[in-house]
Amino acid sequence: MESMSHPKPRPGETRENFIERGMADPEMRQELAGLHDRFAALAERWRNLSSKAVLRLEVAKADTEKMIVYGWFSVIEKRGVLVRDHEGDIITEDDLLEMAHDFIRRSRRAMVMHKNPIDAEVVESVLLTRDVQEALGVSLDRAGWFGAVRYNDRSEWERDKAEGFVGFSWGGRAARERVA
Fold it and tell me: Are residue 76 and residue 44 in the same domain, yes or no?
C-alpha cells in the first residue's frame, strides 16, 4: 500500500472506487476512521464556538411614565451558589464582565426575540458582582448584571406592556468548556 498521511483518490479514480478501495484496505480504513474522528471533534468544537446562549430573566420594575423596564440581564450566582442558565452553562464573573462591557460598548440595541429591532436601548447597566456589592455596602441574594431598557416608541411600549414584560434575554456566542 502507498504511504498515506491522508488517503486520496488516485488520478482518474472515481469517488465510488476510492470508497471501495478504502473499505477493502484495512490500513486505509483505519486512516479514514481516524480522519472521521478528527473531523467529528472539530465539528463539535465548531458547534460549541458558534452556539448561542440565551438567558431569560424576570423584570424587576416597569416605569410606565418614562417607558423604562428594569431587571436582571444575567444572574451568575444566587445565595452563594453558581447558577446554570437555560442552556445548562455556568457563566463566570470574568466572562460576564467581558460580555457586558462589550455589549455596552458596541451594541445596546434592543430586539424582540433576537430578531426584530425595536426603538429601545439599554440606558442603565451595572455589574453587581460580590466585590462591587461590598464596595457599595450592600449585600444582595444574587450577583450578576442589572440594567434598564428605555423604549422610545409608545406603540412598542404598549404592545410589550400588554404582553406583561416577560423578561430580558441576551444572545451571544461563546466557547463552551467542560468543567469538572
Answer: no
Q: Are strands 116-128 and 109-112 parallel, antiparallel or unpaired?
A: antiparallel
What is the extent of the structural domain holding 102? Answer: 53-173
Sign of the C-alpha dihedral computed for residues 119, 112, 106 and 85 taken in this order:
positive
What pTM was computed for the model? 0.61
Give the three cell numbers for residue 126. Answer: 451595572
Specify the pLDDT at position 89. Answer: 78
105 and 22 in one domain?
no
Examine the domain organization and report whether 66 and 144 are in the same domain: yes
Q: What is the 3-state secondary structure (H, E, C) of 22-59?
A: HHHCHHHHHHHHHHHHHHHHHHHHHHHHHCEEEEEECE
- Could you write out the three-class secondary structure of 56-91? EECEEEEECCCCEEEEEEEEEEECCEECECCCCCEC
Cβ atoms of 87 and 56 within 8 Å: the answer is no
Distance CA(25)–CA(112), nearest Å, equals 56
CA dist list (Å): 89 to 22, 113, 144, 180:
41, 20, 15, 13
Digit-coded pLDDT (tens) for 105-153: 876 565 554 455 667 888 999 999 999 999 999 999 999 999 888 988 8
